[in-house]
């Protein structure tokens, strides 16, 4: 049977080979592929800065690079990873590729806007890379005033413009998804038949659309203050630096959910597919995504417990912050319960899903430490926080992204990658990640502040562990590039549904046709019904 | 799911009546229009939040520095502000007329109303230029040699009874020279805090004007399309969408006008 | 505390440390329990329900409402316990006792300057007695900083233009870290120092060793003369400015009809922006000292004024975070700041 599988004659990848056929495409799948390439480049640039940080911190003295260079390293690491990798990662690549087929549509509602969003992303990226080449920026990705407005003499404005522009890419993507999910569903694809991946993206899109404009205007205010000498946040001109923090976190806290919610959606797909079982408590999982998106907007000031806000305001925000924990817990329990009496197998995507469970659990639970007022005073702005958000954003979001990429790679390219090397890579990423970031919880509770170029000697052992783990983690990230590229030419032909998954996207050929479906499908089954899947699985090892 | 999924024949009766403006990934014109409408409203939602950040900053500083805001606001010419408000409201009407005409297939009327809307938009921007250049002349542009001059006659805000002098009559001339009577603000403070007002003034009206310029740009494309006869009673979505956008920009001004011009007028 | 020479737990050197650590271990235990419960169950399920043959599918289970409610409600209850406990510790951290010893801290790029009321001034080093509550009033000369004592489990941001405060009671003599935890530019990592907790008797000895310039209030008194404050602010009440005798802690009526409690924040504002809140019956004659007086001299002046009100033991602002009221201005950055 294996021999009979062939790459179909016509598909979206060979529908035109010219550069123009790519750059002017309106096909959501081609745009997704271009996003994939762009964010991969950004990921490795951001990763190089991360390598620089870990090299510097291997010794307590600031001896690898100068303090200014180090400050630029962590700033560029944060800016590139947050705004140019994590935020577009799953939505712009996997969401773009998969939402239309998952709901039985031919394309997103606004294909042209989808392409424009990619160009906007590129323009934003060019500004930021220009800022990097022109000498970098050293404010930290948070751009706190007054340092960013008057203190720093680095390229704040080009970077800010880059982020501002990239923000519109994110807004347009979110807008496109919302309209698509509302209006492009195939007949019979009711809201409660949507895959949880789509629910998660719907929630993500709400955050993108409602949060991003606020960071945009905040950046505008910062830029006019710095560029034209307007006084808005600068205390020397009567302004309030804490207002900046409020506006910044009003976006940047929900932005964390832009990064993690899509990964939660991927996770639901993976857990269901590889246990061949309906997701446990479908509607609870779906609504918990929306709950996280909504609660995400009312917890921002937990970043400011020691920033001079009043004791009572701090209490209110602490209380509200715990509300995010509940839907996250509900999701985790439902995934665990889904495995009960499943038919579980451990292909590479499932390894990522298991890794995700562990890292997301640790990341989420350590969030409780930070929401707890009395404790946050001690750990705020220490490595404890750094470890926490890396568990969520790297452990959670990137594990989800890689899991999803491994899961849908055969759909996107029509070919399988090496099962062996991908498993090695998954394990390296999991182990390397934990060795890198777990010691940071300890060193954080000891009191090591974040953004330190040098540090007291007694923290060295833990920092060396962290740097050593980062090496493994980095190799784990490079490996997929190699076997994914290899698979494009030499990979086994995957066929339409190599995993025996239930979603509508697996009904398309692999790689899909430009118009996805020959005929608009009509849906008359519930989601995740494996009884109906014609199992055409093949053994991979 | 494969045996559960049957394929609909979407190319049935709809095929014969394909409107030229129907994009390939939509099934019907109705679906296409609904998508555009939802998309536009979501976009306007993002715009509200975009301006929302500015309104937040405005609220905070107006509370902190109310007197300075009142003082600085009195230096704006209410005539130009009111004129612009009237111009924009009129342009909303002409825009609504354009949409209506497109809806009922009146090609030339649509074009004319659109052109009139653009003219009104240009008038608004022209008035804005007059106002801005006045601010430049008076050194009221923050950061650019900013200087708050107390020369504005409007400063005299009624009840100016001087406070009783304490102590043994140390009435210094400096006290008498200060025109800011019960406003307990020194020139230095006015210099600083009115600057915040003008920072917000220029950011808010500047971004609003930018939206106007984008709107006029959009509309010239729409006008050209209308001239070419691209719209009919079944397909006039672009006209309607730019109308929604234009009304939104108007509404922003309806908020900006009282907030900036009418802080505290006698 | 350390294992194999690797430190894993910070010193407990203040009365807060035990409270905060108890909270930490409680949350750690709860989290470890849930993390292990999830880990054990998913690994067990992974083994127990491993797919045995091609085409096998999982049991058809839609969900279970009571179970969903159970695992929504239990975490909610636990979270509320965490919130309540954390809030009570925090409330304690934010409420300095009245008898606290007062120290001023000023952050600037890139050092911490401390001033004792007795007159000692220190940079990146702070000597304090054990067993006494200590309140530190914090300000900044340039950008944001954050004063952090890991061994005391407390920190607070230094915000230009405002006073913030923190307090603690050190209980174990020794030398501990001081860090700046709010990123403040190039040498952020160099903005560190040591807090030296002394036995009360040693502390007294240390105090005797320094203080050449007299107490902080005395320094303030000298400034009060040098800056000619004294020419208007006569104790008799007959001067061009109000008498400052015994005013701290009182409520004074202002010209615009409102009133204000005289505390550090108001004194600060009145010096920097003398005309923001004019006391009823006086003219706005006083020059503003915005940009003309350093943060350190400012606190000396404030201490001097406070010393003129011997009955008011503390003039602590009720809330550490004070939004400047109408017309209040912030100090301009010192000339050395780069642009």
Core attributes:
heterotrimer, B: 266 residues, mainly alpha, Four Helix Bundle (Hemerythrin (Met), subunit A), 1% strand, disordered N terminus, C: 339 residues, alpha+beta, Immunoglobulin-like, Cytochrome Bc1 Complex, Chain D, domain 2, 2 domains, five-stranded mixed β-sheet, elongated, disordered C terminus
Description:
The complex is a heterotrimer of chains A (541), B (266) and C (339). Chain A has 15 helices and one strand. Chain A is mostly helical. Chain A starts with 18 loop residues before the first helix and ends in a 19-residue tail after the last strand. Chain B has a domain of 182 residues: Cytochrome c oxidase, subunit III, four-helix bundle (Four Helix Bundle (Hemerythrin (Met), subunit A), Up-down Bundle), CATH 1.20.120.80. The longest helix of chain B is centred in the C-terminal third of the chain and has 41 residues. Chain B is elongated. Chain B contains seven helices and one strand; from the N terminus they run βααααααα. Chain C is of the alpha+beta class and 339 residues long. Chain C has two domains: 185 residues, Cupredoxins -  blue copper proteins (Immunoglobulin-like); 92 residues, Cytochrome c-like domain (Cytochrome Bc1 Complex, Chain D, domain 2), CATH 1.10.760.10. In chain C, helix 5 crosses helix 6. The chains are: A mainly alpha (541), B mainly alpha (266), C alpha+beta (339). Chains in contact: A-B, A-C, B-C.
Indicate the topology:
The complex is a heterotrimer of chains A (541), B (266) and C (339).
Chain A: H1 19-23, H2 28-56, H3 67-103, H4 111-133, H5 147-151, H6 156-183, H7 196-228, H8 241-275, H9 282-295, H10 311-339, H11 348-371, H12 373-379, H13 383-413, H14 419-446, H15 460-490, E1 521-522
Helix pairs in contact in A: 2-3, 2-4, 2-15, 3-6, 3-7, 3-8, 3-13, 4-6, 6-7, 7-8, 7-9, 8-9, 8-10, 8-11, 8-13, 9-10, 10-11, 11-13, 11-14, 13-14, 14-15
Chain B: E1 6-7, H1 29-64, H2 66-74, H3 78-103, H4 107-137, H5 173-177, H6 187-227, H7 237-261
Helix pairs in contact in B: 1-2, 1-6, 1-7, 2-6, 3-4, 3-7, 4-6, 6-7
Chain C: E1 2-3, E2 6-7, H1 15-48, H2 65-93, E3 101-108, E4 111-116, E5 121-123, E6 125-129, E7 133-140, E8 145-149, E9 154-158, E10 164-169, E11 174-180, E12 193-198, H3 200-209, H4 216-226, E13 251-253, E14 259-261, H5 264-272, H6 295-307
Parallel strand pairs in C: 3-7, 6-12
Antiparallel strand pairs in C: 1-2, 3-4, 4-5, 7-10, 8-9, 8-11, 11-12, 13-14
């Amino acid at each position: 049977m294996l021999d009979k599988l062939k790459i179909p004659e016509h598909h979206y990848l060979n529908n035109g080979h010219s550069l123009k056929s790519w750059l002017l495409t309106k096909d959501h799948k081609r745009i997704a592929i271009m996003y994939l390439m762009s964010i991969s480049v950004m990921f490795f640039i951001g990763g190089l800065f991360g390598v620089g940080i870990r090299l510097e911190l291997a010794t307590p003295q600031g001896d690898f690079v100068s303090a200014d260079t180090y400050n630029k390293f962590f700033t560029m690491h944060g800016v590139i990873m947050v705004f140019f990798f994590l935020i577009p990662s799953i939505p712009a690549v996997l969401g773009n590729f998969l939402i239309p087929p998952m709901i039985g549509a031919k394309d997103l509602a606004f294909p042209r806007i989808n392409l424009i969003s990619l160009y906007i992303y590129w323009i934003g990226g060019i500004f930021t890379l220009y800022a990097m080449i022109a000498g970098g920026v050293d404010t930290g990705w948070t751009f706190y005033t007054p340092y960013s407005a008057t203190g720093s003499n680095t390229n704040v404005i080009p970077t800010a413009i880059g982020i501002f522009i990239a923000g519109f890419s994110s807004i347009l993507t979110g807008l496109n998804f919302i309209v698509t999910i509302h209006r492009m569903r195939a007949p019979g694809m009711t809201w409660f038949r949507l895959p949880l991946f789509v629910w998660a993206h719907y929630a993500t899109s709400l955050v993108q659309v409602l949060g991003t404009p606020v960071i945009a205007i905040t950046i505008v205010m910062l830029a006019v203050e710095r560029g034209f000498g307007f006084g808005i946040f600068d205390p020397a001109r009567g302004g309030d630096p804490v207002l900046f923090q409020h506006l910044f976190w009003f976006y940047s806290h929900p932005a964390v959910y832009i990064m993690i919610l899509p990964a939660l959606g991927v996770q639901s797909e993976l857990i269901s597919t590889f246990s061949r079982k309906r997701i446990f408590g479908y509607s609870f999982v779906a609504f918990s995504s929306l709950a996280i998106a909504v609660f995400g907007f009312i917890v921002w000031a937990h970043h400011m417990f020691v920033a001079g806000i009043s004791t009572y305001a701090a209490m209110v925000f602490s209380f509200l912050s715990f509300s995010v924990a509940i839907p996250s817990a509900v999701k985790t329990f439902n995934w665990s319960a889904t495995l009960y009496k499943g038919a579980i197998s451990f292909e590479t995507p499932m390894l990522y899903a298991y890794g995700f469970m562990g890292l997301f659990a640790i990341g989420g639970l350590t969030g409780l430490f930070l929401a707890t007022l009395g404790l946050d005073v001690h750990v705020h702005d220490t490595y404890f926080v750094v470890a926490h958000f890396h568990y969520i954003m790297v452990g959670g979001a990137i594990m989800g992204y890689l899991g999803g990429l491994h899961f849908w790679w055969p759909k996107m390219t029509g070919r399988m990658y090496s099962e062996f090397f991908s498993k090695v890579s998954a394990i390296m990423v999991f182990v390397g990640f934990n060795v890198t970031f777990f010691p940071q919880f300890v060193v954080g509770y000891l009191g090591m502040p974040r953004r330190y170029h040098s540090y007291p000697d007694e923290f060295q052992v833990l920092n060396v562990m962290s740097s050593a783990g980062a090496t493994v983690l980095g190799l784990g990230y490079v490996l997929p590039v190699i076997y994914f590229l290899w698979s494009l030419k030499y990979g086994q032909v995957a066929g339409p549904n190599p995993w025996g998954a239930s979603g509508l996207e697996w009904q398309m050929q692999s790689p899909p046709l430009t118009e996805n479906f020959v005929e608009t499908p009509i849906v008359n089954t519930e989601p995740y019904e494996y009884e109906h899947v014609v199992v055409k699985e093949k053994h991979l090892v | 799911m494969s045996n559960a999924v049957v394929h609909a024949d979407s190319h049935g009766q709809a095929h014969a009546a394909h409107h030229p403006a129907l994009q390939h990934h939509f099934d019907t014109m109705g679906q296409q229009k609904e998508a555009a409408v939802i998309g536009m409203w979501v976009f306007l939602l993002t715009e509200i939040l975009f301006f929302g950040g500015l309104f937040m900053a405005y609220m905070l500083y107006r509370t902190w520095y109310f007197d300075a805001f009142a003082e600085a606001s009195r230096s704006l010419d209410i005539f130009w502000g009111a004129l612009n408000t009237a111009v924009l409201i009129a342009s909303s009407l002409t825009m609504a007329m354009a949409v209506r005409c497109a809806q009922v297939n009146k090609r030339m009327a649509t074009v004319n109303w659109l052109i009139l809307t653009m003219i009104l938009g240009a008038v608004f921007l022209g008035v804005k230029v007059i106002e801005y250049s006045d601010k430049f002349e008076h050194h009221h542009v923050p950061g650019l040699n900013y200087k708050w001059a107390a020369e504005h006659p409007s400063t005299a805000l009624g009840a100016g009874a001087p406070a009783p002098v304490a102590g043994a009559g140390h009435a210094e001339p400096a006290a008498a020279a200060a025109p800011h009577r019960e406003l307990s603000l020194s020139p230095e403070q006015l210099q600083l805090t009115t600057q915040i007002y003008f920072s917000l003034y220029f950011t808010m009206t500047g971004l609003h004007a930018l939206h106007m310029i984008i709107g006029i740009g959009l509309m010239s494309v729409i006008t050209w399309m209308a001239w070419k006869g691209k719209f009919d009673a079944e397909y006039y979505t672009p006209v309607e969408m730019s109308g929604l956008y234009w009304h939104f920009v108007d509404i922003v001004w309806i908020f900006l006008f009282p907030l900036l011009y009418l802080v505290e007028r006698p | 505390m350390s294992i194999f020479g690797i430190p894993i737990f910070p010193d407990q050197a203040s009365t807060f440390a035990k409270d905060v650590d108890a909270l930490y271990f409680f949350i750690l235990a709860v989290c470890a329990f849930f993390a292990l419960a999830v880990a054990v169950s998913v690994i067990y399920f992974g083994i127990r329900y491993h797919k045995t043959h091609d085409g096998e599918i999982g049991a058809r289970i839609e969900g279970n409402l009571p179970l969903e409610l159970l695992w929504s409600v239990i975490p909610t209850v636990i979270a509320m316990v965490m919130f309540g406990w954390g809030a009570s510790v925090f409330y304690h951290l934010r409420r300095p006792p009245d008898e606290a010893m007062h120290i001023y801290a000023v952050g600037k790029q890139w050092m911490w300057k401390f001033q004792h009321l007795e007159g000692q001034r220190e940079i990146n080093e702070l000597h304090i007695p054990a067993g006494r509550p200590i309140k530190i009033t914090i300000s900044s000369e340039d950008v944001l900083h954050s004063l952090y004592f890991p061994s005391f489990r407390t920190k607070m941001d230094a915000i230009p233009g405002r006073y913030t405060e923190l307090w603690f009671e050190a209980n174990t003599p020794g030398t501990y870290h001081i860090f700046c935890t709010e990123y403040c530019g190039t040498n952020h990592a160099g903005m560190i120092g040591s807090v030296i907790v002394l036995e009360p008797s040693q502390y007294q000895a240390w105090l005797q060793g320094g203080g050449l310039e007299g107490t902080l209030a005395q320094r303030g008194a000298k400034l009060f003369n040098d800056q000619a404050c004294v020419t208007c602010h006569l104790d008799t009440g007959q001067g061009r400015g109000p008498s400052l005798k015994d005013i701290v802690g009182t409520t004074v009526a202002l010209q615009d009809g409102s009133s204000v409690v005289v505390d550090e924040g108001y004194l600060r504002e009145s010096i920097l922006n003398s005309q923001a809140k004019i006391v009823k019956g006086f003219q706005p004659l006083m020059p503003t000292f915005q940009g003309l007086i350093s943060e350190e001299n400012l606190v000396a002046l404030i201490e001097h004024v406070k010393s003129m009100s011997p009955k008011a033991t503390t003039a602590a602002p009720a809330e550490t975070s004070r939004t400047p009221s109408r017309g209040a201005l912030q100090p301009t950055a010192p000339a050395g700041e780069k642009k």
